[in-house]
Amino acid sequence: MKFITYLINLDDSAERLFGATQQLQVAGIDFERVPAFDGRNVQLADIKEYDEKASIAYMGRALGGGELGCYFSHIDCAKRLLQTDADYALVLEDDMTAPQTLLTSITEILDYLEAHAIDWYLINIGAHKNKISTPVKQFHAHTLYKAHYFPMTTTGIIWSRKGAEAFLAYTQTHSIFCPVDNFFRYWLTENNKGLSVYPPLTPPSGADSDIDSTVRRKTANRHPLYGLIKQRRLWGDKLKALRSKYLSTS
User: Fold this and answer.
1) CATH number of 3-247: 2.30.30, 3.90.550, 1.10.10, 3.30.70?
2) Least C-beta-crowded within 10 Å: which of 28, 92, 184, 202?
3) Which pLDDT tens digit goes with each residue over 205-229?
4) CA separation (Å) from 32 to 77, 142, 183, 212?
């Protein structure tokens, strides 16, 4: 079993890189820095992969350049995994926190998954919430779950090669219509191939994102029926998740 670690970091975020490097060194994890796609000043009309009409229909608003930058950065990491002989990729954003036991925890989880017939694409190890899930295995203070309702945030995720291949195949045939964490929820709630760890192994530090603008994310270019569109999206995903949970326990 072999996994590789990628750390997404903007070129002008040297302080973030320094802090993340220190934490990962203490945890005994070597990593490759992945320069983040800086979407803060891009013209959205120039991004051919982005479909604004689809974004407004699904999210109730247009996306910001920072959100597109985050999406492209995660595509880059999936591509990098497939260019190696690694079985898995740990992908971290530079606002994560990493405990000293991170390497041991990840190794135990991946060893368990390799020994059992669990079909999975992606593990969320950084989310603070755990909703509509089924426990799989407890590892000390943390539990691995089948995440029928895949958690938001991409502070820390683990790809399988199969999952990265499926993600990239999807991006080749579909436009971007939501932020990457919303997409992972949409996609993995649909196919029920997401896992999560709770409490999180790599929770966010709480610092504001350098890549994304949360103010813009909440207020820019909203549809007049934004609230209704949001509730339709949330309940659509929750109903799919509840169905998957019921089928997995029946």
Assistant:
1) 3.90.550
2) 28
3) 876 655 554 444 556 679 999 999 9
4) 10, 26, 25, 22
